[in-house]
Batch of 4 targets.
Target 1
Amino acid sequence: MIELEGVPELIDPVMVAAFEGWNDAGDAASTAVGHLNREWKGEVFAALDAEDYYDFQVNRPTVWMEGGSRKITWPTTRLSVVRVGGDKPRDLVLVRGIEPSMRWRSFCNEILGFAHELGVEMVVILGALLGDTPHTRPVPVSGVTSDPDLARTMDLEETRYEGPTGIVGILQEACTHAGVPAVSLWAAVPHYVSQPPNPKATLALLNRLEDLLGLRIPLGELPEDARAWQLGVDQLAAEDSEVAEYVQTLEEARDTAELPEASGEAIAREFERYLRRRDVGGPGQAPGGHATESGDMSPYLRDTAGERTRPPRPQRPEKGRPGGARPDAGSAKEGDAPEDPSTGPDDDTPPTG
């Protein structure tokens, strides 16, 4: 462990973690924690020793120049702290890194050691997986926990997943066994446009985190990025009739499944988010920076040659693959989220065990 600087006494701290790799489809989860760190100007206070947990042939260090000298950045996991202001200030301990290559139990114990020393009240782990979900609909985000009491009090799903898991699932179980309340939030990324970045999935995770913790998260340009991403995928899908037809099939399946769920709970969540954001935003924006129908949509069409690139071309659906079928769990590659059999038509629980 490399300690960088001391940390003052924290106020009602919650740890929020995400890891690049198998549980981070479209880099949605790690980008969400990076957004929190950037918007709230997080200060790194510790990093785990890369030698203990990473295979440098899998996650290679990078070399760069500073003032004529060569520097090396090693792949690792860093911890930072941010203070969230408002009427009731609180602190977040942000953990961002790469899924370790080895010694997962020691890795989790070290993270839990920090949580214990800092008085962390709850751990929230962000993840993203590939799913049969259309890019044109709101990103599904599931909140799951292994703690039955926590599931009841925070309106979460109790995980029933069985099968291969990543560091998200291992860390959540380590927290449970250590008596630390732990929740994981999972965003479903369309499998046919899985390449990073996916700002729409990142935005969905941050909105769900707001609801879970009762915070107002500054979103910056993320809503604009999400709209630009969706418009870009719309344009690319329209160029391929097979992809367009497949997206339409997913839309119909999604709309049919959600028809009974025009629930008061969903409306209440949106209203609570509105109340948290009612004092921010400007003309043409809903609170929090979301563009409205009366506002100018042109920011979403900014020159992609400058700040934004077009999304990668959507992958064609596999021949003979029905809309609800999924590839084997073992087909996930480095950087992909797990292809989780539990997210089939009968069970929407993400892989946390």
Note: The longest strand covers residues 122-131.
Target 2
Amino acid sequence: MRDAPESRPGADRDVASDPGTAPGPDRRPRRVAVDPAGPVLVEGPVETVLDDGTPVRSDRFAVAVCTCRRSRTYPWCDTSHRPRERQGQGPARRPAAPTPGSRTQAPEAPAPEPTTEAPAVTATGRGPAVAATGRGPALAQARGELSESVREALRTGSPPVYDPRSLLTADPWGEDLQLALYLLYELHYRGFDGVDDAREWDPDLLRLRQGLETRFLHALRAGVPAGRRSVEEVFAPLLVEPVDQSDSVSRHLETDGRLEQLREYAALRSLYHLKEADPHAWVIPRLTGRAKAGMVAIEYDEFGAGRAADIHARLFADLMEDLGLDPAYGRYLDHAPAPLLATVNLMSLFGLHRALRGALVGHFGYVEVTSSPGSRRLARAMRRCGAGPAAERFYAEHVEADAVHEQVVRREVIGGLLAAEPELEDDVVFGCAATILLEDRLADHLRESWARGVSALRLPLSGES
């Protein structure tokens, strides 16, 4: 099962509610967090009364209540407070101080001096050769014929050599295909140490990638539930916490997880979190109007709201240091099994194809809707195991941020996209359903490994402090 909230269909009730359905007395204190330049964050469920006396309820885990009255989804925050100044307060500002003990960002290196040298040409004559920067990770070890073919092609600068029939027989969920696809996708991010940057658009590598993607995409479509469903139907079960959380990875880590399991979990998730939000940025030029504005608003937060030290990828690197892990980008690629690689490959697949823009929005919607409850549990897990303040801060940051983002992504990004392109609803549903499928597979792998008392990684973390 997925490590995400489940619910009863129709349980998201952030609409005008029946006055006769007011909740019974609940004497447990509710936690309220006040952002002086933003919303009031309240543990849900929450019922507010509008100016006309209409009660409005949200059953969400954490509810961001608008205080500026500019929100188009009032009384819920949609980040509309940001573009303007609060009357008499000047520009809105983010809280200035990081959590005590958290890392600070080192000064950025100056940009390199421009060069007037003519570009070199590759030995294959395929275009300008861009010298390897050394900033990318090392190439991972191969796990089969296809990944060996990609690795050798990148290492030597030659075309990939493989039997085309292997594309038809390769396990779409297997280590070989998933690593081969990951290596090819990584050329569009930071590349690899010693690999010519021009290989990003090498036609032979792109042809191989197309074959791998076709196999992967077919397995995804075959794996999601059959039958046509609406966006409302696929997202409704994600909006309220389930009563039974026995199959939740974050719940296990919160209550019973060991520090070593938290380290494994962080090492695996680092393959995405160290480039957090990068795959989703590809969809921005493919959106218009409300969908584009909403997507940019969320991405602005993911990239630190203008503060380099608050970029979420930077916060995750700090988390890794607290856990005694190496925060270098791509450091744990050899450690990651296929179920983890598939979750990262999915967002790269959706992000790199304009035809799959609806699926990318569906994937992004799933991430934002389900993030807040899981992040709260993981923050508690870090605190219980004494992981450190930066480790706790990363997840605590996502509790608040994603409570706001959930409203924006559903109403503006998904709602805006379908208002402009209603024919993409099936793609949005597919993107969400495919993400659930892969998160379920990863959760199964983690829980089964830990239940047997073995590592969930392909290689041990021993030797790191």
Note: Confidence is low (pLDDT under 50) at residues 4-24, 84-134.
Target 3
Amino acid sequence: MTRARPRSPLVRTILFVTGLVVMAVSPLVGVIPGPGGIFVFAAGLVLVLQNSVWARGRFVRLKRRFPRFGHYADMALRRRSFRRRQQRTRELVLARAEAATLGFGQDER
């Protein structure tokens, strides 16, 4: 997998400010019936997190404090770390099922 070439600081700044504006506009869109404000806010959050090291650091702290929020946020942002954790969980469940089938892992106390 090849990495994209880094964006220039000007483009990153413009995208960051655009993300902040989109997040600020989301309450106005939220007044319209339907869940539109949530999606607009999420789009702004994605722009901010992709283009700001500071925002990513704050987001990581928030995820550590509220793990359930972090799970849903990672899922929505389609982060690689989320996919790795999901894969590890699937492999662990499979390994436990195989161990139980073979008779391992059953404690007789």
Note: The chain has a mean pLDDT of 82.
Target 4
Amino acid sequence: MTPGASNARPAPAAIEVHDARVRLGDTDVLRGVNLRVPMGQMVALIGPNGSGKTTLLRCLLGLQRLDAGNVRILGEPVGPKVLRRVGYVPQRLPLDPSFALCVREFLALRRPDTRLWFFRRTRATDDILLRHAPGLGMEPLLSRPLSGLSGGQLQRVLIAYSLLGDPELLLLDEPTAGVDTPGEQDFYQLIGDVHARLGITIVLVSHDLGMVFRRASWVYALNGVICCEGRPEEVINANSLKAAYGIHVTPYHHHHHSHAPVPPEGVPITLHRR
């Protein structure tokens, strides 16, 4: 069964990966990966460090050559034309402290109608940016230097930058790396809001299994190959996680705050070594 599958005709695919194989040095990082992501879904990709998650995203972005297999994005082979319809948020964006652009100037580079921001009034540029990336809390940040932002603020800016291109597909590679716990919760709420509001396809690499349980419509567990897939409640259990992570794991309830109630679904869920 694949995400969105039913007796009805399946939804068009945003991503199709067939027998993808990548060897880096002496390591077979991807060993025949197959997956299909229907349009409009929020799909999570989980797995241990070194399991090939970032390599797979690089293949989807045309940054890593396949040794075998093929990938199609939005119905087309990966290439410059189709990648204009894809947004990408990396784990982090290292910035030199002397990087001179403010948030407004950085975001304005993303769109043809704001690229020449130095020839137009600031308010006119801001109106365009905020209209095409609404609900992200950008307005208070527009005049701030990009290099002076916190990790969470910078990730919000990178999402806004991606959305300014009006993408049909958004890829996020562990986007909360370096973000504190309250910032992670806010960030994932933001991603959920973006998905609900825009209906775009989102593929999210994450180690936060609680977030995956609450927000993803489908989960792929990767460790060189797809170890298991299914709805979150089917994948985030001891047997499936052992297949992906190679360890005995026990899903268990965890309170972030001592007085916080356990959610009805019994999440968030974390890994517990036995």
Note: The CA atoms of residues 233 and 260 lie 22 Å apart.
